[in-house]
C-alpha cells in the first residue's frame, strides 16, 4: 500500500516472483477503481519515492557483451500526488535509444550473416528466437539496417514464422514502433 501526502492511497495487487511483479493491478483504495493493469507475460517492478509510484516494465533482451541476455527497462508508468487528487502519467518508453554492450563489428557481422545466408535453405536450423531478439535490440539501438531486416524478416528469408516465434516477432516489431513513435 502506498499513501501519498494528500491522503490518496494506491495498492499494487498481483503476483511477485524473483523480484518481478506480473499479472497485477494498480488500484485506488478510496474509489476501489483499477487505474492500471499488467498481464502475466509482463515483468515489472514498483517503486515509491518522492510521493510518486513508478511501475517499470522490463524485457529480457540480448544487450550484454557477446549478446548476453539481461533484463532491460523498457517502459515506465507513474502516479503522483497533485493537490487533492492523483495524477496519472501514462506508460512511456524508458529510453529513446537502447544502450547495448555489443561491439559494432559484432553487430555488423550478425547483420551481414543474415543477408549472406538468407537464401541457403537452412532456415529450420536458425536460432530464430535469438535472431529476432538481436534484430529487435539493434533496431531499438537506432540501427536502421537491423530495423529494415526485422520488419521484412519473413519476406527477406522466405521463411514463415508461426506459433511462439510469430508472437515474439510481432511483439518485437510493436515495441520498436512504439518506442520510435511510429
Our count of helices gives 5
Structural class: alpha+beta
Shape: elongated
Rg value: 20 Å
Tell me the span between the first and last alpha carbons: 36 Å
Order of strands in the sheet with the most strands? 1-2-3-4
Q: Top keywords for this entry?
A:
single chain, 182 residues, alpha+beta, 2 domains, four-stranded antiparallel sheet
SSE inventory with pairings:
Blueprint: E1 2-3, E2 9-17, E3 20-28, E4 33-38, E5 43-49, E6 52-62, E7 69-82, E8 85-93, H1 104-117, H2 128-140, H3 144-151, H4 153-157, H5 163-179
Antiparallel strand pairs: 1-2, 2-3, 3-4, 5-6, 6-7, 7-8
Helix pairs in contact: 2-3, 2-5
Quickly describe the structure:
The protein is 31% helix and 37% strand.
Description:
It is a single chain. This protein folds into two domains: 2-93, no CATH class; 104-179, no CATH class. The chain is built from five helices and eight strands; from the N terminus they run E-E-E-E-E-E-E-E-H-H-H-H-H. By secondary structure, the protein is α+β, with helices and mostly antiparallel strands. It has helices spanning 104-117, 128-140, 144-151, 153-157, 163-179; strands at residues 2-3, 9-17, 20-28, 33-38, 43-49, 52-62, 69-82, 85-93. The mean pLDDT is 90. It is elongated. The strands form two sheets. A four-stranded antiparallel sheet has the order 1-2-3-4, with no helix packed on it.
